[in-house]
Amino acid sequence: MSLELARVRTLRRQGIRPLTPDDVDAAAAVLQQVFRTDCPTEPGRLADYIRRLCLETPGYDPEIPSLVYEDAEGRVAGFLRVSVQRMTFDGRPMRMACSGPFATLPEARAKGAGVFLLRHFLNGPQDLSITDGANEQGRFLWERLGGQTVHVHCLGWIHLLRPATFASEYIARKYPGFRKLMTICQPLSILLDRALGALVKKRRPRSARPPVRLIEEDLAPKAMASAWPQLSTRWRLRPDYDETYLAWLLDEMSRVVSRGSLIGRQIRTEGGKLVGWYLYYLSPHRVAEVMQIAASENHETHVLEYLFADAERRGAGAVMGRLEPWLIQPLYCNRCHGYYRASTLALLNARRSELAAAVHAGQAFLTRADGEWWTGFREQL
């Protein structure tokens, strides 16, 4: 009697590898399943987003790619987006990698795929790794793998322009059942804001006039890149901006229309010297979400005043941003208030202790425009 041997299928070994163009659709499916299983997206939209931001960026570095996790069947079951940015530290070139979004399917998550992906990323050749959209679970993983929380960047600030309008919009958004009531009360909010605005202007101390007349104009990547080396001398760690990267960044940020209109202005002297710029989204809820403020020394307050005036002209109820240590004094002088941004934590992992120390000590220029927060991948779902 002969026994027929069962045919045994050889399973592939699970592993992590770089994202390739052939993986884009599979990575998009992972994001779709993990983050919005109840709401199918427009076909190809999320895949196009991954292709542009993972494979076609000006700073694409094949040594520090976006990553996928393959299960034993050879299927993509996890994805970690990675972007690379050129930086300088004390004048020496270095590479910074930013992670996010980060997703694994439930069956892969049970096998530790998320930890494997993150460990592989943090062990890459980059000098510095960051993320600025982490939750508490992400923070736990980063710190277990040697990362650190940047506590000052976990704080935010707010400058109220129309307090009543901001409060009514916040209540309507937080408690949808009150939306109709807030709409009925809108005329009262406008009257209250006018009265409060007149009172605040009378009590607001006048800031010192700039030494020369300043002119506000639209952002120009060429002018920004040209002025950046002198504008950024105060920071030991700073991005190595060039015209190509800044033009790409502004174009990509303008595509994230779900956050609102992207608005940016630069400020220069009559002689043509650029002294700073600001960049923010004006959300549908009339909140100006600041992505980046840059200013030369002695012009921080003036750039903030131009920002607040622009947002007020456009009907914003409030201006909000992430706290940057070099802006603490100017923000205080402009009657801004701080708060804790619990849902968007900033984390880092550095190969050298002096890099981490520079970030914690406020000697680094790292803004929302340099991280993952602005990318708005959830809005592609």
From TrEMBL:
Residues 14-177 form the N-acetyltransferase domain. It comes from the Bacteria. Pfam families: Acetyltransf_9. Gene3D superfamilies: 3.40.630.30. This is N-acetyltransferase domain-containing protein. The lineage of its organism: Bacteria, Pseudomonadati, Pseudomonadota, Gammaproteobacteria, Methylococcales.
